Amino acid sequence: MELEVRHLRVICAIAETGSLTRAAAALHQTQPGLSAQLRRIETMLGGRLFERGQNGVVPTPLGELVLTRALAVLPTLDDLMNTAAVAQRSAAMPHRFRLGSVSSPLLGGLISSIRAVYPAADITSRGHHTPQPLVDDVANGRLEVAVVGDSPGYELPAPTGVVLWPVVTEPVFALLPEAHPLAAKEEVDLADLMDQDWAVPRPEDRTPEYWARAGMGTGRRMRVRYEAEGRLLVEIVRHGHAVSLVQPTFDEVPGIAVRPIAGNPIQYRQILAWHREGPLATAGDTVGRQVTEEYRQACDRNPVYRRWLVRQGR
After folding, report:
1. CA distance 13 to 8
2. What is the DSSP string of 165-181?
3. Any idea which GO molecular function terms this record carries (predicted)?
4. Same domain, 16 and 148
């Protein structure tokens, strides 16, 4: 019997859970079966890997040594397997594109850009409210391309093999009830916004944390009253219960006003993510440039953002 990758996963699972019972559940095995497997692994390695006690199991010195090596080896093996899977799927289905996107004006342009390069492409898409799971799906071959984004100080890490292609760093604008006194201004001060009640997205992607940190520079704290996204957030603002922030390409609708924030204190970076071994390996820059042009056209269609760009000399 030779030591295999699955044996290393068993050792790591036991150490992580601290219990043979919990490790067996995590690995979808029976506890007796896992105990027998552990005994065979210990026989192969020539010593006990775990000491059993009333509070569970703890690694022996030999177990600590094996565990350290296993934790170093497994991520590399996982990355190799993921990269191979991505390359195999790309070779088998070169014109299949599963897209993911956070709330962004880029998705429509991305679909158009891919179709321009691959007219016969089979394209599907799904949304997610936070970017990191989408980047992970690109890394693991579950998506070919994703539209994601981040904020200064909260930049997305790029997993091995994933390209993060910046499209634009844009200002973030205030979302106000149309009848709010601040809506009468061409630009609003962040300090004045901080004096209001706020509606913010869920905190998983840390966007509200970034907003609050930016607001603390005014000496004020954000008063978060409502947690909502998309249409729910807009309706809370429309009814005058709160203010919020939006991307500058957000279209004003009845009951809503979008205004720039003086000094551009809050920013957002729009990003495309794809795998180096995926179908955009050679066409990524071409698609990225086309998406950037689509974004510029979206800016031109938005009067609030267009006026802001003119004042900035852009």
Report:
1. 9
2. EEEEEEE-EEEEETTSG
3. DNA binding; DNA-binding transcription factor activity
4. no
Closest CA to 280 of 145, 156, 164: 145
Which domain does 37 fall in, by range?
Answer: 5-83
**Which CATH number goes with the domain that contains 14?**
1.10.10.10
Question: Mean per-residue pLDDT for 285-312?
Answer: 93
Token pair for residue 165?
Answer: 């292609």
Could you give the angle at the alpha carbon of 254 between the alpha carbons of 252 and 255, nearest 5°? 100
- What pTM does this model have? 0.70
Q: CB under 8 Å to 17, separation ≥6 — which residues?
A: 23, 26
Q: What is the pLDDT of residue 92?
A: 47
Q: Which of 63, 83, 103 is the last residue of a domain?
A: 83
Maximum alpha-carbon separation in the chain: 78
Question: What angle, 0 to 180 degrees and rounded to 10, lies between the N-to-C axes of helices 5-17 and 31-45?
Answer: 120
**70 — alpha (psi -120 to 50), left (phi > 0) or beta?**
alpha
Check residue 42 and give its pLDDT: 86
Element at 197 (helix H, strand E): strand 197-200
pLDDT at residue 82 tops 70: no
Last residue of one domain, picked from the residues 21, 54, 83: 83
299 and 164 within one domain = yes
- Is residue 102 located within the same domain as residue 247? no
For the domain that residue 197 is a member of, what is the CATH number? 3.40.190.10
**What are the φ and ψ backbone dihedral angles of 91, each rounded to 5 degrees?**
-70, -35
Residue with tokens 């014109």: 95
pLDDT in tens, 138-163: 998 899 999 999 999 999 998 889 99
> What DSSP assignment string belongs to 268-291?
EEEEEEEETTSTTTTTHHHHHHHH
Answer yes or no: do 251 and 272 share one domain.
no
What tokens were used for 53? 């006690």
Predicted local confidence at residue 75, as pLDDT: 76
